[in-house]
Amino acid sequence: MGGLLYTTLAAALPLLHFTAAQTNTAAGGTWPTDLVGTWSTKSNKTLTGPGFYDPINERLIEPSRTGISYSFTSDGWYEEAYYRAISNPQNPNCPSGIMQWQHGNWYMASNGSLILTPIAVDGRQLLSQPCTYKQGIYTRYNQSELMDRYAVYTDPYHNIPRLDIYKFDGSPMNPMYLAYSPPQMLPTSTLNPTTASSTAGSKSTSTSSSKAKAKRGEFEVPINWKAKQQDGKEVVHYINADRLWWIGLAMTGLGGLLYLGPRRMGIQL
């Protein structure tokens, strides 16, 4: 009976969270205000904003540590930054790294799921495979996301706001912690329009609009921001291979310890 009661209460917690959170109305859903801010995983080194993606010089900026960051505004805009290392157990000297950035619109549906729709032309991805390619592969990135549910609460250990997001299949993402409020973001407008008519998103048409952007922690991009790009040349960047090697070595060592440790103690996995 006790186990059943515990399971029932645990399942009800997300529902209690959603009904208690203050929300703003959106077309087709709501914008819960408890999500507003910039959230980052434990390393707190991967963060959204101009420190991760530089649209003026068209480049992704490598953080000192891997991590994930999401930012949400109270009027339906979001931004995300991913930096992940991919270990290679067969050849620890050849790890890979991937950086991804995108932004767009978000809302919470009536069933509590989060719908994230990026601005298709703005997303960027940098894949680095030092043992395969001398330079990283820099491409556009566009991936809509469906999050099954989320929970915001005060972490009992760190005593700061914590965000738990569950993917479309119910599996949890790494927990994130509030880094900035208001959020630290690039402008929510389209940064890389393919044509003059394709520009979408919020535009600053008055002083009040500019102040609203500043309050959200956004940064204005000059009209001639593309002037520094060289037409006709492919933009190719790379991720620090030495840093990836150490990360890959650490991940391989940890995997070996987790695998061999229990066996040495006579525990069958």
Automatic annotation (TrEMBL):
<feature type="signal peptide">
    <location>
        <begin position="1"/>
        <end position="21"/>
    </location>
</feature>
<keyword id="KW-0732">Signal</keyword>
<keyword id="KW-0812">Transmembrane</keyword>
<feature type="region of interest" description="Disordered">
    <location>
        <begin position="189"/>
        <end position="215"/>
    </location>
</feature>
<dbReference type="InterPro" id="IPR019623">
    <property type="entry name" value="Rot1"/>
</dbReference>
<keyword id="KW-0256">Endoplasmic reticulum</keyword>
<dbReference type="GO" id="GO:0051082">
    <property type="term" value="F:unfolded protein binding"/>
</dbReference>
<feature type="transmembrane region" description="Helical">
    <location>
        <begin position="244"/>
        <end position="261"/>
    </location>
</feature>
<dbReference type="GO" id="GO:0006458">
    <property type="term" value="P:'de novo' protein folding"/>
</dbReference>
<comment type="function">
    <text>Required for normal levels of the cell wall 1,6-beta-glucan. Involved in a protein folding machinery chaperoning proteins acting in various physiological processes including cell wall synthesis and lysis of autophagic bodies.</text>
</comment>
<dbReference type="Pfam" id="PF10681">
    <property type="entry name" value="Rot1"/>
</dbReference>
<dbReference type="GO" id="GO:0005789">
    <property type="term" value="C:endoplasmic reticulum membrane"/>
</dbReference>
<keyword id="KW-1133">Transmembrane helix</keyword>
<comment type="similarity">
    <text>Belongs to the ROT1 family.</text>
</comment>
<protein>
    <recommendedName>
        <fullName>Protein ROT1</fullName>
    </recommendedName>
</protein>
<keyword id="KW-0472">Membrane</keyword>
<feature type="compositionally biased region" description="Low complexity">
    <location>
        <begin position="194"/>
        <end position="211"/>
    </location>
</feature>
